[in-house]
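Side project, low priority. Logging it here so it doesn't get lost.
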Amino acid sequence: MNDIPEVKFDSAEILKRAREETGLSDFGDEHFMPAFEVLVEALEKEAKLNAVGRITQYQRILNSLKNRARMEEWFRRYPEIAQEDLAPPVVIVGLARTGTTMLHRILANDARFYAPLWYEVRNPSPYMDWSADQADQRLLEATEEVNALLAANPEFAAIHPMDPLGADEEIMLLEHSFYSYVPNAFAHIPSYTQFVARSDNAPAYRYLKRQLQFLQWQKKQRGETAERWLLKTPHHLHFMDLLLSVFPDAQILATHRDPVLSVPSITSMNYNLWITCSDHADKLAVAREWSLLFANGVKHTMEVRKQHSEQFFDAWFEDTVARPFEVIEKMYQFLGMPMTEQAKLAMQQHREANRREDRPVHEYTLEEYGYTDKGIRAMYKEYCETFIDSKT
């Protein structure tokens, strides 16, 4: 541990360092500043980070600022990026651990979709010497980061498949706006969690649209062409009204699973992130925070979709596991897209090469996190009555 540099979470110092390391000073829309400052203070005062946690969370914040600065410089050099037209996206949304990742990565094999890749959402802004026809430094860095995370906690491989070139969540794009629940997936920072929940997250979603324009422009520079974006993150449950405000014609693929099964799995996943960053991680604290967070999220989305029911397609975890292509065919009918033989073959090949049984089993119990069947069902009562009990 002696070779891990000591860092201090000081907002002015981190901003100064980001300017020095990039040679750039414009971080874009300054709506990020209040959230940035609350996060920095929470990590310093509340998180009880160990040495590894301090340096990794410090680097994530610094990295977000540097990506913001580079993005503004790319837009300055190439103003046509802001003219990139985004067709209505397809967005997979559901409680975490309901098959969203599996579905996202299967559908992403259809070349008609743009999908954000892990290395792109971690570092959406290329270095200023980037060239579309040369090796991308961001991919090398992403591979190193994935390897380091799995080395720090090998059990995480059983929980969530990590692939630098795999389709992944745009919540890591939202992380760059400093309005997201990514930081509290790594640490107990209640003041920041409450700040994000109570604040207007509209600037974050507007910034997400700008990031997608930038990524689309980059993909086109590499010769990639597609019709529309395929997005995915459970985070949108908390802000479905904003997602549909910024992307009013989005089509939502909503995934469902009994929260008695999904909520403890969510908790176990985040606990395994907390223990990499703190020696004081508390299973019950993780359980309280994340069960309530998502209970409020599903209530919010259920309310929003009353006014947008025609934009939602519902799929159940058990069905997507047992007969995925039957479900996907229905999804494509909802999307108004014909299923091509080329897309179906690519999806089948991906599924065969990425079978769940090839990865270790994710083991946990309700009791170790203080959960009971009755308690979870009470917290998710309306959701269970609407989407779960009618299926059993």
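Brief comment: The longest strand covers residues 251-256.
Revisit when time allows.
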